[in-house]
Design a protein that fits this description.
Length: 285
């Protein structure tokens, strides 16, 4: 018989999820620690669905006005695209300032590689998700990659300079986030930095990219959750976890975007490496 996490445990895990979902430090690396060190029960599918939905609410709320403009521009571009006018997607120089419609298309197309890879390989990588070794090594390796990207990237292109090739390359990098410990935000920010985008532009594109990928994965899992027979008390605890995750994630996005230009990624890299070493020391040595 499975053991349900207590209200306190669920709240702590929701806080961790909200804190780490959008920071480049890997949520999977953090969620393994309480369960392993404190012998807490697995939080289960229902918990995973609601806290990710909380993260989705946070990013949608934070970028609400931007999303409205992008959505309106995207719908307005559909007639041209259906008529075969693909010029909106093929402007391929950094000097071109693209319309919001183009950015909306880039965000959608950038999520396609990870979406396909997730459907094909998620079950294959399921056992690796429970491996502290994989999470620790990925946390260190991709943390070093983030530092290199921040150091050697030109950091001169704004979000308006996004183009199709860059969006697809960032989208392809997101496939690596299937490796536990990589950090979806960390790897996409690394790719954007290597392509010459500023820290803020890389972060904003990464956050906006999270919306369709989190929404799609949540919808796939919600049908299973709906048929799982959860009682009213459990729904109340899940709602509380969702609100905690949403509030913490919103604050993280806000302060991260305000501070990233000045503090850079070094503190996150140092933290990732220290966390990876801690995981190796606790679970391997």
């Amino acid at each position: 018989m499975s053991v349900e996490p207590s209200f306190f445990q669920s709240s702590v895990l929701a806080f961790i999820q909200g804190l780490t979902e959008f920071l480049p430090i890997s949520s999977s690396a953090h969620l393994i620690l309480p369960s392993q060190l404190l012998d807490w029960p697995d939080q289960g599918l229902a918990f995973d669905v609601v806290v990710h939905f909380g993260s989705l609410l946070a990013v949608v709320a934070y970028f609400y006005s931007d999303l409205v403009r992008l959505a309106v521009a995207w719908f307005q571009s559909l007639p041209k695209v259906f008529r075969g006018s693909w010029r909106i997607l093929t402007q391929d120089t950094h000097s071109d300032r693209h319309t919001e419609a183009a950015l909306a298309w880039y965000l959608l197309l950038a999520t396609v590689p990870a979406g396909i890879a997730g459907l094909l390989w998620e079950d294959l990588l399921g056992d690796a998700a429970r491996s502290a070794t994989v999470i620790a090594i990925a946390s260190i390796v991709f943390g070093i990659l983030l530092l290199l990207a921040d150091k050697i990237g030109l950091r001169e292109y704004q979000l308006e300079s996004m183009h199709l090739r860059a969006a697809l390359l960032i989208g392809l990098s997101q496939v690596l986030a299937l490796i536990p410990g990589t950090s979806r935000s960390g790897i996409t920010m690394s790719a954007a930095l290597l392509l010459g985008f500023t820290r803020e532009a890389a972060s904003r594109f990464s956050f906006l990219m999270a919306i369709p990928i989190i929404a799609a994965s949540g919808l796939l899992e919600f049908s299973v959750l709906w048929d799982s027979g959860i009682d009213s008390r459990q729904w109340l605890e899940l709602l509380s976890a969702m609100l905690v995750s949403a509030a913490v994630a919103y604050c993280c996005i806000h302060f991260f975007l305000r501070l990233i230009t000045s503090i850079g990624f070094l503190p996150f890299v140092v933290y990732r490496i220290a966390l990876g070493i801690l995981l190796l020391g606790v679970f391997i040595v």
